[in-house]
Design brief:
The protein is about 45% helix and about 15% strand. The chain contains 14 helices and 8 strands. An 8-stranded parallel β-barrel has the order 1-2-3-4-5-6-7-8, surrounded by 5 helices. Helix 12 packs parallel to helix 14.
């Protein structure tokens, strides 16, 4: 499979779908403590900007997680979403994430006909694929579009990834995501992984997406690399908001894509109005040395998050700590 040339990259790609993951991934920064005004304005922004899907958050188990410790978008009750979108008489579709082992999907995911949600995105690790498939089939039988995010593939055996992709190919899932959970992958690696996923997609008639993290300031580059090969579902967040180093910036993607349906002005206005205030109020995300180091060493960012939250800047000591974990 050959890459796109410059003419292809400059062309209009009608198959591209933009997914706004600001609430879901960004909610990991502030325990989903967004105001209704923030969520409502973000919904209106996505509609005005031509974004295709808006991910509201998680369908987390209320038995496992205390509702008093998190904002409402950790749980994404249907009535809470409907209070924002009404009947959602727009082209924007609504998605939520079901995290394997952390959701009560049979109870909390109701039939699509009774819900404002359009898509269930299932997050799983390689070793929990059987339950992921159960959630996918349950959601599909209830009428939802479905995707699957195989997390932390940079730490997975390639043979295990191959098996997981075959399992998903034979399932009802509509799309499968390349997920650079640790922000450790480089464009040449994304190229090889994309070719693998796209080969499976062609065999089973699936779509392929990418969810990138910005530990090494490569989230945008890796997303562009993947789309140049044919990956068409692109995750992004406004102002890069997301866990740790954050994600691919929506404003970068909209500025790059040549689809006239996407408009950057509403996104800039939202960032100006809301994102600066979040940071002023104490929410922290974005590229920083600790996240760079966990990305380079292909480690989970939890240690970098703790280091940053403690206000530490002794990067050499942190580097030695990470080396001891390798």
């Amino acid at each position: 499979m050959k890459s796109a040339n410059l003419k292809d990259l400059m062309a209009f790609r009608p198959d591209i779908k933009l997914f706004d993951a600001t609430i879901r991934d960004g909610g990991l920064v502030n325990n989903f403590g967004f105001t209704d005004e923030f969520i409502r304005d973000l919904y209106k922004t996505n509609v005005a900007a031509g974004v295709d899907y808006m991910e509201f958050g998680y369908k987390a188990s209320k038995d496992m997680f205390d509702e008093n410790e998190f904002g409402k978008w950790k749980f994404c009750k249907d009535e809470d979403i409907r209070s924002i979108v009404g009947d959602n008489d727009t082209d924007l579709k609504i998605s939520v994430m079901a995290d394997v082992g952390r959701c009560d999907y049979k109870k909390d995911i109701i039939k699509k006909a009774d819900s404002p949600i359009d898509m269930i995105r299932v997050a799983t690790y390689i070793n929990t694929m059987p339950e992921a498939l159960d959630i996918i089939e349950d959601a599909a039988s209830k009428g939802y579009e479905t995707t699957c995010n195989i997390m932390a593939i940079s730490n997975a055996q390639e043979s295990d990834v191959d098996v997981a992709l075959e399992m998903l190919g034979k399932s009802s899932v509509d799309g499968i995501y390349i997920v650079d959970s640790y922000g450790s992958l480089y464009p040449e690696q994304i190229r090889r992984i994309s070719e693998k996923y796209l080969g499976m997609a062609e065999k089973y008639n699936k779509q392929i997406g990418i969810h990138a993290h910005n530990n090494q300031q490569l989230a945008f580059a890796n997303t562009i690399e993947a789309l140049s090969l044919g990956v068409n579902m692109l995750d992004a967040t406004l102002d890069c908001m997301g866990r740790g180093a954050g994600n691919c910036a929506m404003e970068l993607l909209i500025g790059f894509l040549k689809n006239p349906k996407y408009r950057i002005y509403p996104v800039l206005r939202f960032i100006e109005t809301h994102m600066r205030k979040l940071k002023e109020d104490g929410a922290k995300w974005g590229y920083d040395i600790p996240y760079m180091l966990t990305g380079q060493l292909n480690q989970h960012p939890r240690d970098a998050i703790s280091f940053s939250e403690a206000g530490r800047t002794d990067y050499t000591e942190f580097y030695k700590l990470l080396l001891d974990k390798d």
